[in-house]
Write a structure and sequence with these properties.
Blueprint (H helix, E strand, L loop, with lengths): L15 H14 L4 H4 L8 H16 L3 H7 L5 H12 L4 H13 L8 H17 L6 H10 L3 H7 L1
Helix pairs in contact: 3-5, 6-7
Length: 157
């Protein structure tokens, strides 16, 4: 079987929703997701411990150094996953405002890459959705269009 190298951007302060989805898929592919979603068996088996260690290592290796402090002392993959979820999915007003400020102040430069810009904008919307906010499609379109430079508007309209 041919091995394909997978590249996942490490977890940082702003990419949790996408990181979470990709790491979940990676753990599923590697047969390790059970140690996150299920409770440990009683008694804990050696096979469970090995899978838990692999899953914990995968999670730890896919976070930026500034995120390691949160999970450094966790004892299991499930605990690491829960800690990161609690930190990054906490739907506090402050978290929402920080992301909204990034979203509403984002501007693409005249020579910027439109595909990258729209992708970054959609990622911010996705982050807000994960924090409990909902947006009608026309609002998403309006915010993205308003972030584009005048030159793009002239080409489209």
């Amino acid at each position: 079987m041919e091995s394909t190298k997978i590249q996942i951007t490490k977890l940082n302060a702003v990419n949790y929703p996408i990181w979470k989805f990709k790491v979940e898929l990676l753990l599923i592919r590697d047969g390790l997701w059970k140690v996150i979603k299920d409770d440990a068996p009683d008694p804990i088996t050696e096979v469970w411990n090995e899978k838990d260690d692999k899953a914990r290592a995968t999670i730890g290796l896919l976070v930026d150094d500034n995120q390691l402090g949160y999970i450094r002392n966790s004892k299991s993959a499930k605990e690491s996953w829960a800690i990161l979820k609690n930190i990054h999915e906490k739907a506090t007003m402050t978290n929402k405002i920080v992301v909204m400020r990034k979203l509403f102040s984002a501007r693409m430069s005249e020579n910027g890459n439109i595909d990258n810009h729209i992708s970054e904008m959609l990622e911010l919307f996705e982050r807000l959705v994960s924090l409990g906010e909902r947006f009608e499609e026309h609002i998403v379109v309006a915010v993205i269009l308003s972030s584009l430079p005048k030159i793009v508007w002239m080409v489209w309209f």
